[in-house]
Design goal:
This is Carbohydrate sulfotransferase. One of its GO terms (molecular function) is sulfotransferase activity. Belongs to the sulfotransferase 2 family. There is one protein chain. The chain has 17 helices and 4 strands. By secondary structure, the chain is mainly α. It has one domain. Strands 1-2-3-4 form a 4-stranded mixed β-sheet, sandwiched between helices. α12 (about 250-260) packs across α17.
Length: about 375
């Protein structure tokens, strides 16, 4: 060390070496500090590292996951409904009680295909069932097809379409009109559209639907009043009959339905079985909606058809027939008649997943 002090050149060399070592130490210290900070940041953002989502987006991710699980639940429900139809059709294919349930599509008459409405613009087929929100769905279909009255602009709001207009048959393109429009190619065109278009329908508890049909449609019928009301002298018009206090009761209406003379046909679509209107064993529907879950089902099917940005289903009217009314309406009817009524609509209950009503009871067995 004394030699270094006596030699200026050696002194400079020693100082430069010492300063270099200090710089390296400082550099090592700074790098260590940076590494410590990086480790802290890494642990704080470990969840982000694995998920690929920034911390501030975690809430959005949770919401997306909720929506995804909800959609999956709805899709699962649709799969279950469609699978049930397939199972019941297979099970009842050999039944002699309902021979028309599983007959080939070509054996279904044109008249029986009058409830399938076609929208060629968006490639949609809707099978309407009276008393199952069909007024509003018909209005939706008219908006989608660009329907307009003579000299006016097409409707864009379903609520602006009067109900009598919506129900006028010739304002809709239905399968039963195809023979006149397309001649010998009609059946093949039906098959092609059924294969390529999105098809949907909405159903309802069969017994509740009958109550709704009776409340709004079954005003007067001479044959029924004579046969089931024991009234011989009848007015000619509904207004005169009502003024005289003559109106069929619900019990008389049910007796009319289960009578062997009328039950084979049930020509009026308001109380004809749903399976006879929409033929679910022959038509593979892409969506089966229920009136009991109309809001969510309507939203889902409009998205499925990619028209939810064009139209929405109007809200249902307030005078709604409730499922809780079933017992009050049907209890006065004899048990045997209730069982006959259930048998008449049994395919609808089974196909669309409605449980056998308690008011029907079990068949009595003889010892």
């Amino acid at each position: 060390f004394q030699l270094i002090l006596r030699s200026p050149s050696k002194m400079r060399w020693f100082i430069s070496r010492a300063m270099g070592k200090l710089s390296i130490i400082r550099l090592v210290f700074v790098l260590s500090l940076l590494m410590s900070l990086l480790i802290v940041v890494y642990w704080e953002n470990l969840n982000w590292f694995y998920s690929g989502v920034m911390p501030r987006e975690e809430e959005e991710l949770k919401e997306e996951q909720k929506e995804s699980s909800a959609v999956s639940a709805e899709d699962m429900e649709q799969r279950a409904r469609k699978q049930r139809i397939m199972d019941v059709c297979s099970e009842m294919s050999s039944s002699k009680e309902f021979p028309k349930l599983t007959r080939p599509f070509d054996q279904i008459t044109n008249y029986e295909l009058s409830n399938l409405i076609v929208d060629d613009v968006h490639q949609i087929i809707y099978c309407y069932i009276p008393k199952v929100a069909c007024s509003n769905w018909k209005k939706v279909m008219m908006v989608l097809t660009g329907f307009s009255m003579s000299g006016k602009k097409p409707y864009t709001d379903p609520l602006k379409i009067p109900s009598p207009v919506a129900h006028y048959p010739y304002y809709h393109l239905t399968f039963n009109r195809f023979p006149k429009l397309y001649g010998s190619q009609a059946r093949q065109m039906m098959q092609d559209k059924l294969k390529n278009y999105t098809k949907f329908m909405f159903v309802r508890d069969p017994l509740v639907r009958l109550i709704s049909a009776f409340r709004s449609k079954f005003n007067y019928g001479k044959t029924l009043m004579r046969t089931y009301g024991n009234v011989s002298d009848l007015p000619d018009t509904v207004q005169e009959a009502h003024a005289a206090g003559l109106k069929p009761t619900f019990q008389q209406f049910i007796a009319y339905l289960v009578d062997p003379k009328t039950r084979r046909n049930l020509l009026n679509e308001h109380w004809r079985q749903m399976y006879r209107l929409c033929h679910p064993c022959q038509v593979k529907y892409d969506f089966i909606g229920r009136l009991e879950s109309l809001g969510t089902d309507a939203e889902q099917v409009l998205k499925l058809m990619k028209v939810d940005h064009l139209v929405q289903l109007p809200s249902a009217y307030t005078n709604f027939t409730e499922a809780s009314w079933v017992r009050d309406w049907y209890e006065p009817i004899p048990t045997e008649v209730r069982r006959e009524l259930y048998k008449l609509y049994e395919p609808d209950f089974k196909l669309f997943g409605y449980p056998k009503p308690d008011i029907v009871g079990d068949e009595e067995t003889t010892p």
